[in-house]
From TrEMBL:
It comes from the Bacteria. The modification 4-aspartylphosphate is found at D53. Residues 2-116 form the Response regulatory domain. This is DNA-binding response regulator. GO terms for molecular function: DNA binding; phosphorelay response regulator activity. InterPro entries: CheY-like_superfamily (IPR011006), LytR-like (IPR046947), LytTR_DNA-bd_dom (IPR007492), Sig_transdc_resp-reg_receiver (IPR001789). The lineage of its organism: Bacteria, Pseudomonadati, Pseudomonadota, Gammaproteobacteria, Alteromonadales. Transmembrane segments: none annotated. Gene3D superfamilies: 3.40.50.2300, LytTr DNA-binding domain. Pfam families: LytTR, Response_reg. Keywords: DNA-binding, Phosphoprotein, Two-component regulatory system. Residues 120-222 form the HTH LytTR-type domain. CDD domains: REC_YesN-like.
């Protein structure tokens, strides 16, 4: 999912990019400092989402959104501003969301979750299907592929563990060299007499080994 940030303050643009990177699954296609540049970059980069400041030099964010409603109605506009009083006016131009600075990760997550549900595609009997990232419980490396288990089934996907962890860090934690698990599905952790550590995942039938390096982080999630 591609996004564009528009704000005349460099630090504000950097903060949004850092937060979007933490969310995972989003690709930055550019940054704009004023309204006219926003219109140019939307034409050129074709973002799915525009994170738009209201108070910018020249054409303000409301004016930009009004023009985009006609020229690029497919772009979802999320206002990011220090001015809470513009909320009503923002929704009059069909804003998809409204965030007040300083933006917090929780608020950004809530807005993006409404706009975009990341999925993984897989093949089953020659048919392409998909599963929501949020439904994946366990992912394990399997030769050149990744074996995933989700609520209601399992499948092989092309994406590597490295890709999944880089793009969806809010969803997965790496518990072993070859295994990722869903963060909020971790139920319990147990230390074995032999010295190893195992974790129980809600909805998954088997306990999974946890590397020594990952034990502390896993415990923090329980």
């Amino acid at each position: 999912m591609k996004y564009l940030v528009a704000d005349d303050e460099p630090l504000a643009r950097q903060r949004i990019n850092r937060l979007m990177e933490k969310l995972g699954g989003f690709e930055s296609v550019g940054a704009a400092e004023h309204g006219e540049q926003v219109l140019e970059l939307v034409d050129k980069c074709k973002p799915n989402i525009l994170l738009l400041d209201i108070d910018m030099p020249g054409m303000n964010g409301i004016e930009v959104a009004t023009l985009l409603n006609t020229s690029h109605p497919e772009v979802k506009v999320v206002f990011v501003t220090a001015h809470a009083e513009f909320a009503l006016e923002a929704f009059h131009v069909f804003a998809a969301g409204y965030l007040v600075k300083p933006v917090q990760i929780e608020q950004l997550t809530a807005v993006m979750s409404r706009l975009y549900t990341p999925k993984l595609q897989y093949q089953l009997a020659g048919e392409t299907r998909s599963v929501n990232i949020s439904e994946v419980l366990v992912a394990q490396a399997d030769d050149k592929y990744t074996h995933i288990w989700f609520e209601g089934g399992e499948a092989m996907v092309d994406h590597s563990l490295k890709y999944l962890l880089a793009h969806y860090p809010q969803d997965f934690i790496q518990i072993h060299r070859h295994t990722l698990v869903k963060r909020d599905a971790i139920h319990s952790i147990a230390h074995q007499a032999t010295g190893g550590t195992m974790v129980t995942i809600k909805g998954f039938p088997e306990q999974l080994p946890v590397s020594r390096r990952a034990v502390k982080e896993v415990k923090a999630l329980i």
